[in-house]
Structures are given as C-alpha cells and as structure tokens.
Amino acid sequence: MSTAVAGVSVEPRARNVALIDLLDRLLQGGVVIQGDITLAAADVDLVRLDLRLIVAAIDKAIGS
Amino acid sequence: MSLLLYGITTAGEDAGGELLGVAGAAVSRIGAAGLVALASEHAVKPELTEEALWSFERVLESVMEAHAVLPVRFGALLADAGEVARMLELRRAEFVPKLERVRGAVELSVRGIWSEAPEPAETRHAATGATSGTDYMRARLAPQRRAHELAERVHAQLDDRARASTHRILTHASVPLSAAFLVDRGTEAEFARAVDSLAAELAGTELVCTGPWPAYSFVGGPHDG
Question: So what's the pLDDT on residue B126?
C-alpha cells in the first residue's frame, strides 16, 4: 500500500519505509517488559545506525 | 536458556499451529491468569538483525489474523516459564483492557515524506500580493510548522476511520510525519484509499501507508493514541 508515488521508485521506497516502520514499532513500540536481560544499548544503537543509512537512501532517492 | 517474548494474548485463543520465531526457534505458549504469552527459547541472546525483527513480526502477524494480541517490544528475555507466568499474573489488570482495546483491530502506518528538501529555517517574506503571498509563505514555513500542518490535515481526514490515532513529528529530516491508526480489521483497503485521495491533494509531500501491523503503537503508556 503506497500512495501517490510514481514510476520505478515505488517499490524500493515502500520497502524502505516498511523497514523504518518495522524498526520504530519493534524497538520503540509494544508492551515494555522488564526482562532479566534486555538488549544492550549498543545493539539498539547499531540498529539506529542502520536506520540512518536507510533514511539516507530515501533522501537520495528523493534527490535523484 | 532464556525465553524471548513476542506477545500476549487471551487464553483459549490457541492461535495458529506451529509457529517459528527468531532464529528458527519454535514459539511456545505459556499460560497464566487467563492470559497466554508467546515465547521462544534461546540458549544465547538473539542477535538484533533485520531478519530477526521480521521473524518476530511474522509470529505476531500469524497470531493477529484471528486473535487479539499485545505485541511486546523486541528484546525482552525472561529466565523461564515460571517467570513469564509471574509477569502475566502481576500485570493482568493492565493487559486485559488493552487486549479488548485492540481486539478486531489492526494498526496502519501513514508516513509523510517530503519530496523536496525542506527549508532549513523560516524565511521571512514581506507578502504584498494576497493569494500569491500566502502561497509563498506556505512554501517557506519552517519544517516544524509544515510538519504540524500535515499532521493536522492527516488526522482531520483519517481520524473518523480509526478507533485511535497517534503521531510523531519529524523523526527524520525528510519524514515530517509518522502517524499510526488503529482501524477495524477489514477496513484497511478503504483506509488506504482515503490515504490515496488525501495524498493526491498534497503538493511536495508523499504519503506512504503500510500495514496491517500488530498494534505496537497502541499498547504502551497513556501517551499512545
């Protein structure tokens, strides 16, 4: 379901957005349960770094 | 060994058959206090990878097709089934109303993406012509204001179709709006069409609708939707 996006850029853009949606939801949404072990902050930072790369890719697609 | 939690559902809703979760681990159902937690056993802490996140998501998507489920934030590991049962007993009063809230509903995401670079700062302009001046100012509004305007517009158009909604502004420079809507299952296509028609009215902003997602944005604190 992507809207108002024309041409070949539709699919990669929608995929990237879906990935941002996934990361946002799984890592910042949901019920918070204080486990014995939760993911180390470093792990989450690593994913945030990936996220920045995805967003940069979107920016690039927009610019081109 | 420890248990990675995926979600919480109601007892008696034995969703799906065998489910495979993160790293191919079988997902088991741990019941207590009239609730069921979905969990998989792991000898080592599961790695946080894109594949792991999608595996986690797929488990919840299979369950939510037929059942109300509260998605758990990725990464919660409990020691054993006893600990999971204690958690369910302890938080039952919180989970039961939340399950009712999301029952029969799915979450849809609506992202606003600027298709042109936003102005870095608000540019003052002495408007002389009435209509063209307005247009000019509109185009020059600071990103914050433009993003808030977009949010208002999106909510005004779509809130009637949703049980609840929530949004965040400018999580990334080119993403002015990240909104989530809790909609009745079965109305997703209709909702997406409404997003389409709204998108057609917007200049310089694309709207991308994804989902259906488990209700990640509507099961947390009171700030949710």
Answer: 47
